[in-house]
């Protein structure tokens, strides 16, 4: 019982990170209609950008993460302007191939800037807090609370703001959104900012929980997409649910199968949902 | 001596380029002919390589095997890679193309984990050594001609695959695939079974990739889960196809040669300075990524564009 509860905590931590990544993927997919294979590497860039501000300039964590988010968002917008925008007419599959290449370029850039070695934000061991027999690291509490706040922010954005409503409209029907006078260029810009900001935070949380490697985000792309598909691609709320389902399932799977096959669990769930209900839990587009 | 060194290097260069040419031809059947997006090229390559290695490894190899002829291994690599493709294709090919791309990442990851962890079969991270290399040790007038002879075999394999794919491209089968790629709804309205054609194209392309793996393993004599970086191998094959010209088999071969030449020349450039440049490997990967973007923006049809009908 204690073991299950402990695994549940790890699952919620992992699920929080996956959910943040999956919302970003779902938003960009809904508005721009293409699966961004560089999204995992946006996470990596976000995680690494914290380093110069935190370890370098000795800024407080919150300020360093905010600056890293801003940097990642700027990068995402620039990449869209330089590449994706010019290829949009060529169709979503060409964009996908291009984004695959962008991801590899970002990974290489990270390696050039920070070297091939694994890094951490802070060395030393964090003592877990004990809640009865359960052990929780302070970082895990940061991750869970941070994710809940961001999910809430996304919810408010989508339901209460003009921009959020415009994003949903574009996701439901791009043509209808355009004829009803929505400034699509502005919506696209904002979608990249929001998606990249969530990716950067997810990357920071992931690196906080593990460590910094150039392929950090790439290996997270599969669970992130699995969560987005599970929830119904283009449906941010579904992505949140999908993220937690995949995270918890991956942790619980270690009870039955070897932990080395953890990444396969996300894949298995994705395959199952593709067979049973290809549109996902919340009928995606 | 100097000339001999250059000749040996050229043989090495062309053999590896030949393996890439086979991979690119396989991807062309999927992406170029039909518009199927496969990001798991390395997985089918690895499955082919391991299949042939397991069947042909002699009793003295590490780990020992049944020691079947190399031809058997190469021929078996194709159906095994094809069966893997059939399984994954049945699930994803009637869905949207981007779902297959995502699923192919999953397959690649699982194949990598399997090869790494299932030591009883694959010897795990240590990999498999002592796999037969045809013509190894053949000596013609003091020159060890094994490499050159294997290159000739590789070229022959490419020739057969190229000819077969050209015939299929011109056949009604190839036209049906292109119809599905360009106008899926129209093809369906004409009574074409879209899923069935996609499945055939995906399986055929993956079988060619499996063959590429077998050709590689009998050249190297060794295969391990880290022998090639799966992600980079997949990526460079994509760059080769797009650069050469998706849809064109000749373009696939030209693209493989051109991009492998660029890659090899940049490697040689890195060896000129006395101090190794830090991050040079990453810089090369970055530049190949940049090259892909430039091609997509400026010449999306590639060096040898697909012929217009």
What does the model show?
The complex is a heterodimer of chains A (285) and B (309). Chain A is 73% helix and 2% strand. In chain A, a hairpin with a 2-residue loop joins strand 1 and strand 2. Chain A has one domain: ABC transporter involved in vitamin B12 uptake, BtuC, CATH 1.10.3470. The termini of chain A are far apart. With 285 residues, chain A is mostly helical. Chain A has helices at residues 2-32, 39-56, 61-87, 92-114, 138-160, 162-172, 174-179, 184-209, 221-231, 236-253, 262-276; strands at 129-131, 134-136. Chain A has a two-stranded antiparallel sheet with strand order 1-2. Chain A is built from 11 helices and 2 strands. By secondary structure, chain B is mainly α. Chain B folds into 2 domains: 27-226, no CATH class; 229-309, no CATH class. Helix content of chain B is 72%, strand content 3%. Chain B has 12 helices and 4 strands. Chain B has helices at residues 2-34, 41-56, 70-92, 97-117, 119-122, 146-170, 172-182, 184-189, 194-220, 230-244, 249-270, 280-298, and strands at 128-129, 139-140, 143-144, 222-223. In chain B, the strands form 2 sheets. Chain B has a two-stranded antiparallel ribbon. Chain B has a two-stranded antiparallel sheet with strand order 2-3. In chain B, helix 3 (70-92) packs antiparallel against helix 9 (194-220), helix 7 packs across helix 9 (194-220) and helix 10 (230-244) packs parallel to helix 12. The chains are: A mainly alpha (285), B mainly alpha (309).
